[in-house]
Design a protein that fits this description.
This protein is of the alpha/beta class. The protein has 15 helices and 16 strands. The longest helix has 20 residues, at about 365-385. Bound molecules: nicotinamide-adenine-dinucleotide.
């Protein structure tokens, strides 16, 4: 492998793959290049051709386009593959890549179910290949700062509880227009592994574990309100959920949201420590999922209020956080000064390929734990029981996942 020119490919060339190319350009602009996107694969060749144009314009070079990943793997000499596929395809394709000797960066969630994730984990162990799960939000400054504020800064005492609440009215859509393909597969539980709780919600599950540690048990209710009356979730994807988490530390927190609550929108996302509170006030449609989100066009916002009444705005908190990082830590966390979580996760993958790092921050085991938290929420909503996350991890409870596993032969 030439360390200067890592040969990369995408499998799946839809919306998030386009965002990854933007992130790669951010790295190149910061002098963090040394890679080439040499091949693209998508079952829809138009999507692959469109991404090829973006790669050429933003990164240079003309990648070869494939409709079949098997053909791409047998033709190309690749160092790493970036998998940006619907969830039900992650395990089959990631395992094929690793068995072909190619390292894998796989979009979240790791797989369509815990069993799918376990097969990927076993393949990584068997082949000795890298398997890194693409999780941008915990890598952005907002969550790094929140993690420090809650756990290390001493500014808030020790973590106590949280109340996260968000409601917005349903989006209106022309019923005569067909749903775009990226929405169609997300509404099919067998392909997506779940609804919003497991899709955008995977980010929340990963973040809350990153910020506060592992969850012991959950109690959840889910509803579908869009149809105009509260339907308990069975065949229709949820648009409204109510969750109580009990963490292994004993801390209890609440995550309640609806994307189909008519009338006035409301949001309140607050963490409490024994000596103060930390609020996320970033004005984003996805704030309940993407905690302390930073976008290129917009910094995250929020404030820490201490019991003595003193207030630190998010940018002041970030300055304090950054002050205590040395140069090496800053470069590791924010390579070349990047604050784009997508660029940072891709840079970590490149550094793993070069042997400059040994362990992905979100490896298979970590990805499975965040997935299991999402699945515990469904298990509780479907059975009415309080569910232990360890029972989802061990496979002792799988009422919700069983039909998904059966569909994929897992
Ligand atoms: N990190 C984030 O913030 C974020 C945001 C959006 C999506 N995602 C994740 O990215 C992944 C893809 O989501 P998306 O929004 O880009 O979906 P998408 O529907 O826009 O793109 C998926 C692509 O996969 C292609 N595809 C389907 N079957 C294929 C096959 N057998 N072989 C090759 N290509 C095939 C489709 O044609 C499509 O172009 C998912 O895992 C999703 O959860 C992450």
């Amino acid at each position: 492998m030439s360390q200067d020119h890592l040969r990369l490919a995408f499998i799946g060339c839809g919306s998030i793959a386009r965002r990854h190319v933007v992130a790669m350009k951010d790295l190149v602009d910061r002098g963090r290049g040394g890679f080439q996107v040499v091949a693209l694969c998508d079952a829809n060749l138009d999507s692959a051709e469109t991404l090829a144009i973006a790669v050429k314009e933003q990164l240079g070079g003309t990648p070869t386009v494939y409709a079949s990943y098997e053909e791409m793997l047998s033709t190309e000499k690749l160092d790493g593959v970036d998998i940006c596929l619907p969830h039900g395809l992650h395990h089959t394709v990631a395992i094929a890549c690793m068995e072909a000797g190619v390292d894998v960066l796989c979009e979240k969630p790791i797989g369509v179910s815990v069993r799918a994730g376990r097969l990927m984990e076993q393949a990584a162990e068997r082949t000795g290949r890298i398997l890194s799960i693409a999780v941008p939000h915990r890598r952005q400054p907002g969550q790094r700062v929140a993690h420090w504020a809650l756990n290390e800064s001493g500014l808030m005492g020790s973590p106590l509880t949280f109340f996260h609440h968000y409601t917005r009215p349903p989006e209106t859509r022309d019923p005569n227009q067909p749903l775009p393909p990226r929405v169609v597969w997300r509404r099919n539980r067998l392909m997506s592994g779940g609804g919003m709780t497991l899709d955008s919600g995977f980010h929340y599950c990963d973040s809350i574990r990153y910020l506060l540690g592992d969850v012991d048990k959950v109690y959840a209710e889910m509803r579908e309100l869009q149809s105009g009356y509260p339907v308990p979730v069975s065949e229709r994807p949820e648009d409204t959920i109510y969750v109580t988490f009990t963490f292994k530390s004993g801390l209890v927190g609440a995550w309640n949201w609806s994307v189909a609550a008519p009338g006035e929108p409301r949001a309140s996302v607050v963490f409490y420590g024994s000596e103060g509170s930390l609020e996320d006030t970033t004005p984003s449609r996805f704030r309940i999922f993407h905690l302390f989100e930073r976008r290129p066009e917009q910094n995250e916002s929020g404030q820490l209020v201490r019991q003595d009444g003193s207030i630190l705005q998010m940018h002041e908190l970030e300055a304090l956080y950054r002050e205590q990082l040395d140069e090496a830590q800053s470069e590791l966390l924010f390579p070349g000064g990047s604050t784009d979580g997508f660029a940072i996760e891709i840079w970590e993958f490149l550094e793993l390929l070069r042997g400059n790092r040994t362990q992905p921050e979100v490896d298979a085991a970590e990805g499975i734990r965040s997935l299991a938290l999402g699945d515990a929420i469904y298990e509780s909503a479907f059975t009415g029981d309080v569910v232990r996350v360890d029972d989802i991890l061990s496979g002792a409870r799988r009422t919700f996942q069983e039909s998904i596993d059966e569909h994929w032969g897992l």
